[in-house]
């Protein structure tokens, strides 16, 4: 959670929203059910948020923060059935016993309907870990969504890859002693590879009651990533639960821990190859023999689950635009 360093950032009442994630309170009582998750940002008295999941395909919220932490905002969203809605809200905060924030959202839609929704901060202050029960609920929910969006063939492929990974790497150890590193640049192939390996991790947990550490490494490009790439990576991290699951370790390419103690390394660019790249840190592991439909099988999970947004790719040598995922290709 971002450091809360000033009274101006927190407001007079001490409510700071930047970097926090919220979900409906009822999600606590429906283990395994898909739910909407919002990522909040703030700067001074300005705030904005992106939300998705459950019956919401995508949504945005912008607003202003009062000194007492109350948010005056406006939102728009598209539901999973393609219907759009917009309106205004007043979100009144209070503090839970464990330090998290609960928001009472008094909303009014443009069509005249109104109501109150209650959402709670997911992240625990101070980085406290989830209980084993809540971690199980989180993993069940994510696995259910991945199974639906990836499809049977890719889930079976992930099962085969997970089995082969353990056969290759355990050598008398337990799954929890392994670290698997996935490096990607936030592009379409990278997002698919990340979702596939996260599925491998969740399948391992379901079969063995323990699983390997999933270390994700982003930011391998020489130039700073675009806003689109940064947003893709953050949305994927939200949907896949990488910040909540203590067995996931999101890193940037500049982190000194990259490659440290990795038992298997998977990169998006070599996922279908049997050759390890010269710059790769750690032992290469190929998922190419198990994936079911590259390069097009990743599209359903990107479009429907990770909310992936494409950017025009450029040739690293010439700087000119190159063709990517062509609109005319079969999906």
UniProtKB/TrEMBL annotation:
<dbReference type="InterPro" id="IPR058595">
    <property type="entry name" value="Avidin-like"/>
</dbReference>
<dbReference type="Pfam" id="PF26421">
    <property type="entry name" value="Avidin_like"/>
</dbReference>
<feature type="region of interest" description="Disordered">
    <location>
        <begin position="307"/>
        <end position="331"/>
    </location>
</feature>
<protein>
    <submittedName>
        <fullName>Uncharacterized protein</fullName>
    </submittedName>
</protein>
<feature type="compositionally biased region" description="Basic and acidic residues">
    <location>
        <begin position="307"/>
        <end position="317"/>
    </location>
</feature>
């Amino acid at each position: 959670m971002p450091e809360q360093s000033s009274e101006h950032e927190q407001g007079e009442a001490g409510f700071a929203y930047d970097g926090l994630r919220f979900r409906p309170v009822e999600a606590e009582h429906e283990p395994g059910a898909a739910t909407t998750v919002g990522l909040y940002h703030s700067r001074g008295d300005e705030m904005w948020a992106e939300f998705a999941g459950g019956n919401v395909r995508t949504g945005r919220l912008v607003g202003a923060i009062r000194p007492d932490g109350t948010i005056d905002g406006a939102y728009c969203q598209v539901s999973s059935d393609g219907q759009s809605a917009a309106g205004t809200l007043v979100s009144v905060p209070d503090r839970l016993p464990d330090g998290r924030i609960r928001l009472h959202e008094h909303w009014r839609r443009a069509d005249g309907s109104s109501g109150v929704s209650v959402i709670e901060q997911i992240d625990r202050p101070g980085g406290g870990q989830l209980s084993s029960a809540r971690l199980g609920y989180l993993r069940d929910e994510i696995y259910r969504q991945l199974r639906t969006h990836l499809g049977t063939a890719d889930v079976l492929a992930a099962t085969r890859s997970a089995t082969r990974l353990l056969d290759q790497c355990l050598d008398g150890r337990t799954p929890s002693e392994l670290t698997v590193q996935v490096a990607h640049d936030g592009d379409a192939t990278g997002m698919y590879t990340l979702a596939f390996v996260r599925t491998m991790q969740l399948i391992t947990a379901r079969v063995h009651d323990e699983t390997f550490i999933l270390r994700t490494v982003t930011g391998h490009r020489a130039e700073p990533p675009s806003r689109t790439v940064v947003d893709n990576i953050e949305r994927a991290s939200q949907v896949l639960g990488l910040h909540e699951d203590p067995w996931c370790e999101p890193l940037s390419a500049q982190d000194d821990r990259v490659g440290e103690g990795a038992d298997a390394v998977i990169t998006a660019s070599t996922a279908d190859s049997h050759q390890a790249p010269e710059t790769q840190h750690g032992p290469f592991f190929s998922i190419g023999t198990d994936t079911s439909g590259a390069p097009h099988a990743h599209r359903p999970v990107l479009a429907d689950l990770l909310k992936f947004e494409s950017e025009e790719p450029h040739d690293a040598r010439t700087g000119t635009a190159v063709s990517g995922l062509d609109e005319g290709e079969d999906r």
